[in-house]
Design a protein that fits this description.
Distance between the termini: 42 Å
Mean pLDDT: 90
Number of strands: 8
CATH superfamily of the largest domain: NAD(P)-binding Rossmann-like Domain
Strand content: 5-15%
CATH class of the largest domain: Alpha Beta
CATH architecture of the largest domain: 3-Layer(aba) Sandwich
Length: about 325
């Protein structure tokens, strides 16, 4: 039993879904993507290359997002209503903290624009959050697919797996895109999000744990003997840290919300959320130190640790 409430239960469909919509299976030809950031533009580009029409609405988006969409071959629509009218399905690929508000905004337009829309939520969110969104989208009359993306943008084969769950996955599973692997996890909404949360808890969660250990060692003057011990007793571990830590300054801001969703997932089955709330706090710290975005390499590991240590020192004097 979760603290303060019941453990989340996965559902085959929210009760607000309209059963007659389940029969409206269509062949997907036009795919809307909100929003074409690094992952969204990568997935969209792969689908464009396979002949699908991929559309977005760049109204109010940053110049970088608009550039990514244009380079990926997206077609722009003047507003959200037009986007929804034209789309057979919509992929929501936004920061986790925006997933709910994006769904609420789209739900407000669905009934008048496209009540048969297939809404695919691809965000790094807890099962509890995806169930809330499924209720919102189902209540507006559309169908909902729970989706978890594992891997990096599909620049080559083997990098990107897209896991799907829910009763309306069949049309999405028929999609084909270069370097994209769609995988079915069954008919329960929440399963795909659960897998994403458990996977990211080990990958990004472990990186946060490494940073706690390394920054502490740096601050207490034992980083060098710790590094020597690791290279002796577990050399592959230090190598992974050297490769991974320099990429964190560019990504930390995007991982804060994801760690909070993992914390919510763990709390939902009765575990403490402390570890991943702590991971979120670590990424907030790194983001505050570096203020960097994108996927390019950052400074070497020792410089990353030194900058974080100096920031902590300056803010604790």
């Amino acid at each position: 039993m979760a603290r303060g409430g019941q453990s989340p239960r996965f559902h085959s469909t929210p009760h607000t879904h309209k059963s007659n919509l389940r029969c409206r299976a269509v062949t997907i030809k036009t795919i809307a993507i909100i929003s074409p950031g690094d992952m969204g533009s990568g997935i969209g580009k792969a689908l464009v290359q396979e002949g699908y029409q991929v559309i977005t609405c760049s109204e109010g988006r940053s110049p970088l997002t608009k550039e990514l969409a244009q380079k990926a071959g997206f077609q722009d629509t003047p507003n959200l209503a037009t986007l929804l009218i034209q789309a057979d399905c919509l992929f929501s690929i936004v920061p986790p903290e925006s997933a709910l508000s994006v769904a609420q905004n789209i739900a407000g337009h669905i009934q008048s624009a496209n009540p048969g829309l297939l809404y695919v939520d691809c965000n790094a969110i807890a099962p509890q959050t995806t169930l809330k969104i499924a209720e919102i989208i189902g209540g507006a009359g559309a169908r909902y697919v729970d989706c978890g993306i594992i891997g990096s943008p599909p620049e080559r084969r083997g990098l990107t797996r897209i896991y799907l769950s829910g009763p309306d996955t069949s049309e999405v599973l028929e999609l084909h895109g270069q370097n994209i692997d769609f995988r079915n996890l069954g008919d329960q909404i929440g399963t795909a999000s659960a897998l994403k949360m458990c996977y990211a808890s080990q990958t990004k969660g472990t990186t946060a744990l490494w940073l706690h250990s390394l920054v502490t060692a740096q601050s207490l003057g034992v980083l060098d003997p710790l590094r020597k011990e690791w290279t002796s007793s577990n050399p592959t571990l230090w190598g992974r840290m050297e490769d991974n830590i320099p990429t964190v300054p560019h990504r930390a801001g995007r991982w804060i919300g994801e760690m909070k969703e993992i914390a919510l997932t763990m709390e939902g089955i009765g575990l403490t959320n402390d570890a991943f709330e702590g991971a979120a706090t670590m990424y907030e710290l790194v983001d505050a130190v570096f203020h960097q975005k994108g996927y390019s390499e950052g400074p070497p590991i020792l410089e990353v640790l030194s900058k974080i240590e100096h920031h902590l020192h300056d803010h604790h004097e």
